[in-house]
């Protein structure tokens, strides 16, 4: 118990130091005096506040080069909304920058007073985005999951975001108690007719906005690593030209859904209509460039949050 209290006290101190530094604009010397600690301790506490995500730092100034790239991508692919974040050549993270920008965009939707239905995909980028959300009270909105929240082994899918998002924004939420991919088309159709599932499917069709991750199709793809597909299935899909996926729906380089038995087994909701919903795809990193382009060409998204490198790729190809 003593260790737990000691750890909590240190987090309290880190939160106080982080607030003084990032919100009150105090220097580390001033924080040290205010808290009665050394400058080195103040520096460590400020760093801890960021490391523990007690403080979330967002850039609130549009960079001209990113704005120009965003407008060019929007015009070329006929998108409603495009946001380009700076690229970090030294980072291998698939979420850096994009998650923060996605959280800011999602918060703009959540702050609207009129009731909305917001649909959510799944994946590492969306999980990182939800972790960046500020606590909010949004009882007027409904959050619906586009994908199942059950892993192949029967456990809760780690990268399904609907529960953590609902907890952060205090909104009604409607999960999909299904796997992402089931054993057959007949099983999918049967599950979709169940009384606990059918209303969620109808709700997803009426969504005002959707946030989805764009996944690549390789032998290192999440669908394979997370156990939703077997290696031989992935190899067959790659041979057939699989390039990317959204919510488990697999498409080729032109963006068309593959005519493949795997797509008949996808239990996810259909991607919301781009005529009535703003569907924002989120992805960055060279390994996802072809998938991002295919998603845009195929009309699966009408919004995009990505980085400079991906934007330049989209404009060249």
Topology:
Blueprint: H1 2-23, H2 28-35, H3 39-51, H4 64-77, E1 81-85, H5 98-110, E2 117-120, H6 124-131, E3 142-150, H7 162-169, E4 172-179, H8 185-192, H9 198-205, E5 209-213, E6 215-216, H10 222-225, H11 231-239, E7 244-246, E8 249-251, H12 261-264, E9 278-282, H13 289-297, E10 303-307, H14 308-316
Parallel strand pairs: 1-10, 2-3, 2-5, 3-4, 5-9, 9-10
Antiparallel strand pairs: 6-7, 7-8
Structural class: alpha/beta
Helical run tally:
14
Largest sheet: 7 strands, parallel
Strand order in the largest sheet: 1-10-9-5-2-3-4
Q: Could you give the order of the helices and strands?
A: HHHHEHEHEHEHHEEHHEEHEHEH
What integer value in Å does the Rg equal? 21 Å
Characteristics of this structure?
alpha/beta, 15% strand, 7-stranded parallel beta sheet
Structure description:
With 317 residues, the chain is α/β, with parallel strands linked by helices. The chain has helices at residues 2-23, 28-35, 39-51, 64-77, 98-110, 124-131, 162-169, 185-192, 198-205, 222-225, 231-239, 261-264, 289-297, 308-316; strands at 81-85, 117-120, 142-150, 172-179, 209-213, 215-216, 244-246, 249-251, 278-282, 303-307. α2 (28-35) crosses α3 (39-51) and α5 crosses α6 (124-131). The longest helix has 22 residues, at 2-23.
Structure described in brief:
The protein is α/β, with parallel strands linked by helices. The chain has 14 helices and ten strands.
């Amino acid at each position: 118990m003593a260790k737990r209290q000691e750890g909590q006290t240190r987090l309290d101190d880190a939160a106080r130091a982080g607030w003084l530094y990032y919100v009150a604009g105090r220097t580390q010397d001033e924080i040290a005096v205010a808290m009665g600690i050394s400058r080195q301790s103040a520096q460590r506490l400020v760093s801890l506040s960021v490391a523990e995500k007690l403080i979330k730092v967002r850039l609130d100034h549009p960079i001209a080069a990113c704005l120009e790239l965003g407008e060019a991508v929007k015009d070329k692919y006929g998108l409603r909304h495009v946001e380009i974040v700076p690229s970090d050549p030294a980072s291998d993270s698939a979420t850096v920058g994009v998650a923060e920008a996605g959280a800011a965009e999602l918060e703009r939707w959540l702050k609207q007073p009129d009731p909305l239905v917001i649909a959510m995909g799944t994946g590492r980028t969306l999980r990182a985005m939800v972790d960046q959300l500020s606590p909010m009270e949004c009882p007027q909105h409904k959050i619906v999951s586009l994908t199942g929240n059950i892993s192949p082994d029967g456990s809760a899918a780690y990268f399904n975001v609907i529960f953590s998002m609902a907890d952060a924004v205090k909104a009604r939420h409607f999960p999909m108690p299904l796997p992402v991919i089931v054993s057959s088309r007949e099983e999918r159709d049967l599950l979709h007719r169940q009384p606990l599932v059918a209303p969620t499917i109808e709700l997803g069709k009426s969504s005002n906005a959707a946030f989805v991750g764009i996944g690549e199709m390789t032998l290192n793809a999440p669908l394979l690593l997370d156990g939703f597909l077997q290696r031989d299935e992935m190899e067959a899909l790659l041979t057939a030209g699989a390039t990317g996926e959204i919510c488990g729906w697999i498409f080729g380089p032109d963006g068309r859904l593959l005519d493949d038995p795997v797509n008949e087994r996808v239990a996810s909701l259909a991607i919301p209509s781009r005529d009535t919903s703003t569907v924002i795809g989120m992805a960055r990193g060279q390994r996802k460039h072809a998938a991002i382009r295919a998603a845009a060409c195929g009309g699966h998204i009408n919004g995009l949050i990505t980085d400079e490198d991906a934007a330049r790729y989209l404009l060249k190809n």
